[in-house]
Amino acid sequence: MNKQQDIWEIAPSTHLLDLKLKEVWAYRDLLGLLVRRDFVSFYKQTILGPLWFFIQPLFTTIIFTFIFGNLAGISTDGLPKPLFYMAGITAWNYFADCLTKTSTVFKDNAAIFGKVYFPRLIMPLSIVVSNLVRFGVQMVLFLFFIAYYYFYKGADFQPSWAILLFPLVVMLMALLGLGAGMIISAMTTKYRDLSFLVGFGVQLLMYATAVIYPLSTAVEKYPKYSWLIKYNPMTTLIEIFRYGFLGKGAFSWSYLSYTSIITLIILLVGVIVFNKVEKNFVDTV
Amino acid sequence: MSLAIKVENLSKAYQLGQIGTGTISRDLERWYARIRKKEDPFLRIGEDNNQNAKSTSDVVWSLRDINFKIEQGDAVGIIGRNGAGKSTLLKILSKITSPTTGKITGHGRIASLLEVGTGFHPELSGRENIFLNGAILGMRKKEIARKLDEIVDFAGIQRYLDTPVKRYSSGMYVRLAFAVAAHLESEILIVDEVLAVGDAEFQKKCLGKMSEVSKGEGRTVLFVSHNMDAVMNLCKSGIVLNSGKSDFVGNVHDCIDYYQNSGLNSIDNWVAKKDLHHPHFSNIKYEISGEQPNLILTIHFKTNSASNSPGAFVVFGIKSSLGGTIMEAVPSLNPFVKFNGEETSYSCEVELTGFIPGTYFIYAWLGASEAESYDWQDNILSFEITQAPMAERTFPYSARTGFLVAQSKLI
């Protein structure tokens, strides 16, 4: 009973860089169970069950193909339109879901956070992992599309070596969404206005990211303003994602390093802000 | 014996009123004060948490300079009126919110049960919820799996183990939730008034489990309840909180005596906290007149509602300091309280016959019928009887022989 590690202290403020990661590790089982809860409760009492995961990207792809592809005639870098859009949507949705769900984590869990303590970081982490499951399911749909166009339609594209960067790209998207979401969530506990901003902010951000158009077109049409899109870390990730699977897209090591550094900074700031707010948010929410 | 918990100069400040408007400018002000190494301008003017006094600042100290030590294996009751700071203390101990100043040190894992069934998901089965809830409370999966049979047995839900908990009766739900928490392998167990739910038999079972935990297994228990009988049965020592200060620390019997006799603050005026829209009490106050053994309690109350609602009647109850209701007064069964968008005042008289000296609490209920309750305010007022009902009696009055002395005479 008198083990040294059992000794704890509760004090008004802890060190800013005390990220409590050890504690998070001790609660790793909770993470798994929360992911399971999200997944099971999602399709309980539905007829289509996990099929719902397919419906959203499928319909968005169809609509984008009609509006941006056919009606507006935006270039898709010579790739089959549905394939181009689905790549962008699948990757973007993962980031956007991580961001929006994480940004309301305090508000959504106020009841449980107010009654029991566990490392709060577990909640946003479980959101990221839950969405990863969803993303995985949607990737299956995407791969199915690739196979269909490659073997059946004989479309002209080749996956490239960058497909090996896929795990890194997914991780960076998750961490970027997590970090930005945590910063927003910490601020929304006091300033509720931000939560209104997130919904349409994410939508606007999508247009500032190379989701519905390739980066090359943006550079060509708006040489002056394209830096805005280029320096958007999500653009790099989506371009690599497309370059890996479909063989068309911009790739450079310098942009990848830049994106990784930005992601790590946002993540670190996010965790610090989150841990700081977590201690007293019960009093303000 | 070694210390389990040591609390030093613990304080917690809360901001009253609206939080949200103008906070950016306040935050900047605070931040500016901090970089100049000055005191936080909004904390300096804090005052005690006397809920009746008109406040001069909008920061109150919910806890102020609390100091105590708890030894390992001790069972401690935390006693105090509503708003005395009990819940705040438990919240800080369970790390839900952090203190403003002071610190707590201790050792051993803490399991806190501030609410039954936190994190239960209605769609998941009993088994899944046991795992989820156990993990939320800090158990590892293997640990829960090892204790699963014991938990299910204690809760008595074997047949429903794989049924979603939304189909459970509320009793089963509570039993399951308590069972999970009670089987946590923690050195310190913190329990808020969760026993208020559930039937009498289950309450007994919970108390039994808790005393087994503290006496049999030598774990430390902190227990908050308004039920003094439960506190007396379970706890060895106690802490009396009053307006955020620890008034008395010691043996549980002395604590309860102190609490009952302190008669600290008779509260004779209560004002509803904010603008409410549904029919509600907006203000209740009382005065006591007459001579023992026949005192008259006159209650003046105001009601209000933003919208027109069916008429209502009122019930006032009088509770002893042990927490049980002694009697209820129903001045009229007619729906005499009318709601027409304006504050309306009423008064009623209650006869207090033969009350023994001590502190008593008042609750107020407002509703259209037994089934349609508008407002219920528990323990909002208190009064103290100092005079004995029989002036010539020399042997003491005690709660054990009843709170009322029956009016009797030889014939």
UniProtKB/TrEMBL annotation, chain A:
<feature type="transmembrane region" description="Helical">
    <location>
        <begin position="51"/>
        <end position="71"/>
    </location>
</feature>
<feature type="domain" description="ABC transmembrane type-2">
    <location>
        <begin position="48"/>
        <end position="277"/>
    </location>
</feature>
<dbReference type="InterPro" id="IPR013525">
    <property type="entry name" value="ABC2_TM"/>
</dbReference>
<feature type="transmembrane region" description="Helical">
    <location>
        <begin position="255"/>
        <end position="274"/>
    </location>
</feature>
<dbReference type="InterPro" id="IPR047817">
    <property type="entry name" value="ABC2_TM_bact-type"/>
</dbReference>
<keyword id="KW-1003">Cell membrane</keyword>
<feature type="transmembrane region" description="Helical">
    <location>
        <begin position="196"/>
        <end position="215"/>
    </location>
</feature>
<keyword id="KW-0472">Membrane</keyword>
<feature type="transmembrane region" description="Helical">
    <location>
        <begin position="163"/>
        <end position="184"/>
    </location>
</feature>
<keyword id="KW-0997">Cell inner membrane</keyword>
<feature type="transmembrane region" description="Helical">
    <location>
        <begin position="121"/>
        <end position="151"/>
    </location>
</feature>
<dbReference type="Pfam" id="PF01061">
    <property type="entry name" value="ABC2_membrane"/>
</dbReference>
<keyword id="KW-0813">Transport</keyword>
<protein>
    <recommendedName>
        <fullName>Transport permease protein</fullName>
    </recommendedName>
</protein>
<keyword id="KW-1133">Transmembrane helix</keyword>
<comment type="similarity">
    <text>Belongs to the ABC-2 integral membrane protein family.</text>
</comment>
<keyword id="KW-0812">Transmembrane</keyword>
<dbReference type="InterPro" id="IPR000412">
    <property type="entry name" value="ABC_2_transport"/>
</dbReference>
<feature type="transmembrane region" description="Helical">
    <location>
        <begin position="83"/>
        <end position="100"/>
    </location>
</feature>
Automatic annotation (TrEMBL), chain B:
<feature type="domain" description="ABC transporter">
    <location>
        <begin position="43"/>
        <end position="268"/>
    </location>
</feature>
<keyword id="KW-0813">Transport</keyword>
<keyword id="KW-0547">Nucleotide-binding</keyword>
<dbReference type="GO" id="GO:0005524">
    <property type="term" value="F:ATP binding"/>
</dbReference>
<dbReference type="InterPro" id="IPR003439">
    <property type="entry name" value="ABC_transporter-like_ATP-bd"/>
</dbReference>
<dbReference type="InterPro" id="IPR050683">
    <property type="entry name" value="Bact_Polysacc_Export_ATP-bd"/>
</dbReference>
<dbReference type="InterPro" id="IPR027417">
    <property type="entry name" value="P-loop_NTPase"/>
</dbReference>
<keyword id="KW-0067">ATP-binding</keyword>
<dbReference type="InterPro" id="IPR003593">
    <property type="entry name" value="AAA+_ATPase"/>
</dbReference>
<protein>
    <submittedName>
        <fullName>ATP-binding cassette domain-containing protein</fullName>
    </submittedName>
</protein>
<comment type="similarity">
    <text>Belongs to the ABC transporter superfamily.</text>
</comment>
<dbReference type="Pfam" id="PF00005">
    <property type="entry name" value="ABC_tran"/>
</dbReference>
<dbReference type="InterPro" id="IPR015860">
    <property type="entry name" value="ABC_transpr_TagH-like"/>
</dbReference>
